[in-house]
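[stage:ingest] chain + small molecule (3-thiaglutaryl-CoA)
[stage:ingest] validated
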Amino acid sequence: MSAFTGVDFYEIDELLSEEERAIRDTVREWVDAEVTPVIEAHYEAGTFPIELGRKMGELGLLGANLDGYDCPGLNNVMYGLICQELERGDSGVRSFCSVQGSLVMFPIHAYGSEEQKQKWLPRLASGEAIGCFGLTEPDFGSNPGGMITRAEDKGSHYVLNGAKMWITNGTLADVAVVWAKLDGVVRGFLVERGMEGFSAPEMKGKRSLRASVTSELVFQDVVIPKENLLPGVKGLKGPLSCLNNARYGIAWGALGAAMGCYHSSVDYSTSRIQFDRPIAAFQLVQNKLAWMLREITKGQLLAWRLGRLKDAGKMRHEQVSLAKMNNVDIALRIARVARDIHGANGILGEYPIMRHAANLESVFTYEGTHDIHNLVLGRWITGIQAFQ
Ligand code: TGC
Ligand code: FAD
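[stage:predict] done
[stage:export] C-alpha cells:
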C-alpha cells in the first residue's frame, strides 16, 4: 500500500498550529513503523501488544492533555490528533491510550488526593503502570446509575463487593478506578492489583477489538484503605465527566479508522483492474469514494471545532455526544463500503478493513451506545429525558 499522507480536502492543516501538526506527524510515523507491522498478528492471536503501551508512555501519549505529575500538558486538539493516528493503526491501541489517559489518569488528576496523584500519575504517564476503569456491570451498561457494586464504610477501611464487566485493560491493570455505591452515592475507589478478594479474569471469544484486553473485575470483600477513595467527586457525574474526555478522543479516533479504510480503498480501486479498467474508473466506485471523503471531511471539522471549544473550556457534553455518535457512525459505514470496494480481498487480514469494521462495532457501543447519544441530544433539544 502507498504511504499514508493524511486526508485534508478542506485544508484543515491550516487550522492547526505547527506544533499540533508536528505531534500528529510524529505519531503517524510511529504508527506506520511500529503498530501497523505487528497489529494484524496480535489481532489474529487476540493479544494486546503490551510493549506498545510502554512506548506510548515514552512518546508522551498517555494522559497527553493533562498537566503536571510528569504529564505532557498538550492541548486537546493535539490529544485528538494523537487518538486519530493511533486508531488508524487499530482501535485497540487507541483504546489503551483513551482508558489510561481519559478514564484513569483524568479522574486521579481531577478528583484524587495529592498522595494519589503523586503515587500514580507519573507511573501511568510513563506506561510503567497500567490502569483500567470499572463502570459497566453485567446488568447495568447504558444505565450505570443502577450499579449494584457496593462499598461499606467499616470505620478504618471500606469493604467492596460486586462485579464489573467489559473492562478494557482489566487483567493488565496495576490500578482500577472502580465506581461503586457508598451509602447509596456513586464514589470512585482505587483498587490495586493484588488486593485480597480482587480478581480480573480476561474475557475471551471477542470478534471485535481483538488486539485489546477486555476483562471482568470481581470484588469479594475487598478491603480498601480509606486513602484509596477519590475524595473530589460524588455521584454519577464523576464517571460521566471522565467519559466526556474519552468520548472526545473517540470522536477523533474513529476518523483515523475511517481514513485508513478510505486510503486503502483509493489505493485498491486505482490498481484493481476489471473490465479492462481500474475499478476507480467506474462512476459507482467514484461515488463511494466521494461519499467517504465527504463524510471524513465533515467529521474532521466537527472534531476540530470540538477540540477548540474544549481548549477554550466551553465544550458541553452534548456536543461530545454528537461528535462521538456521528464520527463512529460514519467510520463504521465507511469501513463497510471499503470492504465492498475491496471485493473478496476485503475480507482478508492483508488489508486493514475487516479489522477496522469489526473494531468499530465495539466503538459504536462503548462509551455510550449510538442511541444513548441520540437520547442525550434529544434531551438537550426538547428538555425531556426519554431514557426511562
Ligand atoms: P443524569 O441524571 O443524566 O446525570 C446524573 C448526573 O451526572 C451529570 N451528567 C454529566 N456530567 C458530566 N458529563 C456528562 N456527560 C454528564 N451526563 C450527566 C448530570 O448533570 C447529573 O449531575 P447531578 O449533579 O445533577 O447529579 O443520569 P442518568 O442516570 O439519567 O444517565 C444519563 C445517561 C444515560 C446519559 C448516562 O448514564 C450514560 O451516559 N450512559 C452510558 C454509559 C456509558 O457510556 N458507559 C461507558 C462505560 S466506560 C467505557 O465504555 C469505556 S470503553 C473504553 C475504551 O475506549 O476501550
Ligand atoms: P445495553 O445497555 O444493554 O444496550 C443494548 C441496546 O439497548 C443498545 O442498542 C442500546 O442503545 C439500547 N438501549 C439501552 N437503553 C436504551 C434506552 N433507554 N432507550 C433506547 N435504547 C436503549 N465499560 C467500562 O466500564 N469500562 C471499560 O473499559 C469498557 N470497555 C469496553 C470494551 C469493549 C470491547 C466493549 C464492547 C465494551 C466496553 N465497556 C466498558 C462497556 C460499554 O460501555 C457498554 O457495553 C455500553 O455502555 C453498553 O452497555 P451494554 O453493552 O450493557 O448494552
